[in-house]
């Protein structure tokens, strides 16, 4: 029987952080074993905020290397760059005619990004979720594994698929959102009321996947926590809870085992241990990344192959869409 499909993507902006790793990449690595997986580098989305062209070009290759370093197997899964498969922009246009301005006005990411980039609230930023819907629907995936912040966009994708199917006949499979149970929303180290974000103003917000051991120690030491003393899982103590969640995920230990281990310990002791757990967990990934990033040709070959594989699937859906609408 054919494996069911998954699709997800990350923007090639800045360097990835442990929130991206936990919320997205780790899920992908597990799911690729049981699914026909497509992982996109969404460069067309990246240009909805100002990018330096040279830097963007380098970021694309770095993100591809990071996908592989994190454990995505390019033989098993398709890794590709969005702008190299023109069907994304083409389907995006068709879906634009089904998306309501009022749908897009409700998107919290648009509201946040507009506040962050008030000097450049361009139409692409507003239209971002429609292109994301095109990314997804072209591949007819069963599930879309992402972090919690993308839930609203996946919901809009489902709405657009259903709207299209109702008007033009059954073309799209309506995909489901897939969040991990714990770690779907890792919070910022310097402000545990906000999600960890790679476009944050300060790098104290996140731990980048390429941070050195010393930087990781320093950032965890300075992470915002309350003035309590007991190291216990209490969602009301947001800063500590976030750090404990990271400990759980990176150590693989249970809540009970962690609380037992740190019974009577101070926050400082716990933080020092957490930093070592993260450093150990990231170190194989960092080694693989350092080797991969030097081999530009190898990455290019993977992306060329990925674009061909993605194109083959995407063009079948686009043709069905054009036929259904009466285009082409
Ligand atoms: P930006 O700050 O530039 O918007 P970002 O840090 O939110 O970037 P994205 O490229 O938007 O990163 O996200 C890539 C993937 O990582 C998405 O699946 C997203 O849901 C997930 N993700 C992002 N931040 C977190 C987080 N703090 N916790 C869990 N998952 C996250
Ligand atoms: N909006 C997503 C990135 C993204 C995406 C996708 C994720 C663009 N297209 C398709 C899943 C499926 C974000 O993380 N900011």
From TrEMBL:
GO terms for molecular function: ATP binding; tryptophan-tRNA ligase activity. It catalyses: tRNA(Trp) + L-tryptophan + ATP = L-tryptophyl-tRNA(Trp) + AMP + diphosphate + H(+). The gene is trpS. Belongs to the class-I aminoacyl-tRNA synthetase family. Its EC number is 6.1.1.2. This is Tryptophan--tRNA ligase. The keyword S-adenosyl-L-methionine does not apply. It comes from Candidatus Kerfeldbacteria bacterium RIFCSPHIGHO2_12_FULL_48_17. One of its GO terms (cellular component) is cytosol. ATP binds at residues 11-13, 19-20, 147-149, 186, 195-199. Keywords: Aminoacyl-tRNA synthetase, ATP-binding, Cytoplasm, Ligase, Nucleotide-binding, Protein biosynthesis. A motif ('HIGH' region) lies at residues 12-20. Pfam families: tRNA-synt_1b.
């Amino acid at each position: 029987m054919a494996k069911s499909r998954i699709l997800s993507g990350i923007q090639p902006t800045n360097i990835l952080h442990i929130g991206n790793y936990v919320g997205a990449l780790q899920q992908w690595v597990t799911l690729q074993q049981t699914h026909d997986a497509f992982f996109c580098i969404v460069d067309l989305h990246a240009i909805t905020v100002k990018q330096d062209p040279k830097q963007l070009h380098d970021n694309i290759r770095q993100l591809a290397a990071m996908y592989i370093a994190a454990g995505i197997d390019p033989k098993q899964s398709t890794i590709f760059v969005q702008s190299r498969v023109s069907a994304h922009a083409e389907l995006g246009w068709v879906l634009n005619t089904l998306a309501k301005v009022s749908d897009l006005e409700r998107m919290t990411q648009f509201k946040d990004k507009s506040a962050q980039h008030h000097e450049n609230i361009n139409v692409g930023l507003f239209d971002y979720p429609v292109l994301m819907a095109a990314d997804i629907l072209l591949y007819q995936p069963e599930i879309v594994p992402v972090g919690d912040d993308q839930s609203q966009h996946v919901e809009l994708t489902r709405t657009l698929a259903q709207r299209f199917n109702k008007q033009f006949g059954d073309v799209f499979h309506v995909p489901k959102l897939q969040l991990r149970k714990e770690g779907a929303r890792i919070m910022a180290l310097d402000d545990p009321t906000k999600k960890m974000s790679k476009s944050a103003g300060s790098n104290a917000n996140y731990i980048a996947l390429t941070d050195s051991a010393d930087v990781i120690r320093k950032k965890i030491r300075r992470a915002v926590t309350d003035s309590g003393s007991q190291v216990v899982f209490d969602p009301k103590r947001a800063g500590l809870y976030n750090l404990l969640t990271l400990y759980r995920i990176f150590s693989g230990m249970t809540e009970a085992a962690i609380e037992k281990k740190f019974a009577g310990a101070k926050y400082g002791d716990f933080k020092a241990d957490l930093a070592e757990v993260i450093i150990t967990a990231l170190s194989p990934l960092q080694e693989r990344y350092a080797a991969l990033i030097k081999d530009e040709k190898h990455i290019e070959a993977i992306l060329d192959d990925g674009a061909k594989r993605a194109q083959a699937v995407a063009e079948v859906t686009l043709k069905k869409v054009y036929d259904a609408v009466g285009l082409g």
